[in-house]
Amino acid sequence: MAFSTSHKPSDRGTDFFPVSPLMIFPEAQGNFEVYVAIKGQYVLYCKQNERLNPEKRRKLHEDGVDFVYILKTQRHGYDAYIQANLAQTLRNEELPLKERAFVLYSASINTVEEFFEAGLPPSLKRRKLRDVISLVKESLDFLTIPQALSKLATLISCNYGLYAHSVNTLTLTAAVLQTYNPAHKTLRNACIGALLHDIGKMSWTRNQFDRDAARIKALEFEAPDPHPSVGAAYCAALPISREILACILLHHERVDGKGYPGGVNGEEIPFHVKALSLVNMYDRLTSKEQGGAALAPFDALKTIKSSLSGAFDPELFKRFVMILADARIT
Ligand SMILES: [Fe+2]
Ligand SMILES: [Fe+2]
User: Fold this and answer.
1) What domain range includes position 234?
2) From ligand 1's centre to the CA of 160, what distance in Å?
């Protein structure tokens, strides 16, 4: 292998994070350096703001390199690069479907890991991260058909924060539902539904996203919107089950019957959707990515209990609080 220069980091394993070479897109330049590991040393393979040309990329493939490495101090540059290029890569029909699916999987796992790192209690991290990652993989396997990938690409290009919210919602939905030991099929469908639940927002304009963020920031919750029905219509052509469709269509319904789009009675909302609906609100209240309320977890739970009493299943709420408080309930 020929390298442009070399670099020997002082402390292996703490300075770098691994990514698949497929996550370094040939025609895009990133504001970070790319290293390869050779005999216990990290060697610079691609400089900052240099394109990893197809030849260099092919060389990695030929040499069976599964991971390249990026300095943790340059994580911000890498995240911005993924946000800017992911949707386009998913739509690139010159890339094999399997490769695009892997890119989506890697980006999603990255989001799950960051979310666990930043937002969940330590012992939950240890116990659940592997389970959630396998559920993400299973959900995405299901979605790697060309029509579904193109819908997810549109969602990502429409608003990357919305995609991150969808992955966070999947993570929390899995964390809550797993404590009830549901049928695996229901758990998997709830995860796929969580990924797709806001897909109807693909039709939103920038202004609508801004208005929605301002509303959540001001803790104003009464704003019915057609995105659940629009999302269900978007997904009509996908081979999705009723359990998944219910996540998309019913995630803004309330147990007191005052939700939207149908104002259906709480008993008509499936249990997995009630869980999704609760954690959806929690992520909206705590997340910074969509410019929302960015409340601390305790304040978000307080808001859900006071301003949104009647919206969510009280038993599920208690369970969720215990999970976030890291109670050992499984
Ligand atoms: Fe929604
Ligand atoms: Fe949502």
Assistant:
1) 99-324
2) 15
